[in-house]
Amino acid sequence: MSTLDDVDRWREELESKRAEKDEFFANHPQSPIPPEGRDAFDGLDYFPPAPDYRVAATATVHDDPEVVLMDTTAGREMRYLRVATLEFELDRADEDLEDGTFELAAYQQESPNEEPLFVPFRDKTTGQQSYDGGRYMELSSDRDLENGDELVIDFNLAYSPFCAYSETFDCPLPPEENWLDVAIPAGERFE
């Protein structure tokens, strides 16, 4: 979707994606839910859809991307390139939540590829209402990203990595530069 304005259509698409994901987790052979736990699985837990957490971000592209070593849940390190910094504003009506301008780094693996931007992050829900290893988002652009380009960051699509559901997976942990000092009550919950 190209605009932030069509909330009803966005909500329908979000609910459809969530139902698809629940079906995958419940029935697909590659589900991260161990086979013995799939019969009891009745769907992932999500924060309610929140349009305020679907924001436009301005990209600063790094022409000479820096290598970032991310620790993993298995105690290893994975190499990523910091390819862009995304700046966005959160403007919420709830007086208990901070407004402000925030940044998240976007990464890609070192090998040349056309993969989406990988945006792992932690926020003030981490370890309480969301997975203690952080959450992930993937962002795509329909062309090569340039300075000043706008991308939509939809925190409602933030998801817990597979290692939240099974220790057989080894997942990168969000680096400290992507620890947001604000609660993002959107996307997957995990308690």
Q: Would you write up a description of this structure?
A:
By secondary structure, this protein is mainly beta. The chain has a domain at 47-178. The chain is 11% helix and 30% strand. The longest helix has 21 residues, at 7-27. It is globular, with a radius of gyration of 17 Å. This is DUF1684 domain-containing protein. InterPro entries: DUF1684. It holds the Pfam family DUF1684. Residues 18-45 are annotated as: Disordered.
SSE order and pairing:
Blueprint: H1 7-27, E1 54-71, E2 77-90, E3 100-109, E4 117-121, E5 135-139, E6 150-154
Antiparallel strand pairs: 1-2, 1-6, 2-3, 4-5
List unreliable stretches of 5+ residues. none
Strand order of the largest sheet: 3-2-1-6
Report the biggest beta sheet as strand number plus sense, adding barrel if it closes.
4 strands, antiparallel
Q: What separation lies between the terminal Cα atoms?
A: 31 Å
Query: How would you classify the helix and strand content by structural class?
Result: mainly beta
- One letter per element, helices H and strands E, the order comes to HEEEEEE
Specify the number of helices: 1
Rg, please?
A: 17 Å
Strand content: 25-35%
Which shape, going by the Cα principal axes? globular
Mean pLDDT: 91
Helical amount among residues, as a percent range? 10-25%
* Strand element count: 6
